[in-house]
Amino acid sequence: MIPSAAELENNLPTKIVGKSIIVYDEVDSTNDVLKKVISGKEYNGLAIFARHQRRGRGQNSNRWIDTPDASILCSIILHLSGKQKDLSPEVSRKSATAVLAAITKIFDIGLRIKWPNDIYYQDKKLAGILIESSQIDEETTAFVIGVGINCSQRSCDFPPELRATACSISQILQKKISKQHILNLARQILIELDDISS
To answer: Which of 24, 27, 85, 195 is the most exposed place for a label (fewest CB within 10 A)?
Structure first.
């Protein structure tokens, strides 16, 4: 379901985010992969995608549970000028707004942000954002912005305890989601997140 790095990078109209993209079949957590290189300025804008996370994480030590090849699971690194404490609230707000904008531009569905980091359809969670940051020098803060979006899951794909509170784009639209739509959404996420860097 997740496209290749070449498909994602092809003529991507971004300045920083997604100029380099890696797609993994499976990782523990996309955020954890990037946290290992968060301080390297050469990695600014790096985006990684995974078809499955073994130990996906959400806010407050919550788990993010996905079905292989049924979600968009990605993280990016952004290096921004300023102090961590000053930048973090704005990055959080802009990230949530970016993910909401990306989904609604590709799929005509009404969504809302449950601040600070979740995207909801009615009373069910569709997507989540996990932001982790580090002050890497006096002038620069590095952010890892992780995004998880439920795309193709059926009700039975969610654990029983989540079926009443989680949903997927496929469930909302009541139809299968094409690979082209997944590609369009993944690219749109990178485009929207790129605006944070400007």
So the answer is: 85
pLDDT for position 67: 78
Strand segments, DSSP code E, in the chain are 21-24, 47-50, 71-81, 112-114, 118-121, 124-137, 140-150
Residue type, 92: S
Q: Which domain holds residue 81?
A: 5-197
The CA distance from 43 to 28, in Å, is 20
| Beta carbons of 135 and 38 less than 8 angstroms apart | no
CATH number at residue 123: 3.30.930.10
Residue 51: C-alpha distances to residues 74, 80, 183 (Å): 9, 28, 13
| Residue 53: strand, helix, or coil | strand
pTM higher than the cut 0.85: yes
Q: Which residues are bridge partners to 137 per DSSP?
A: 140
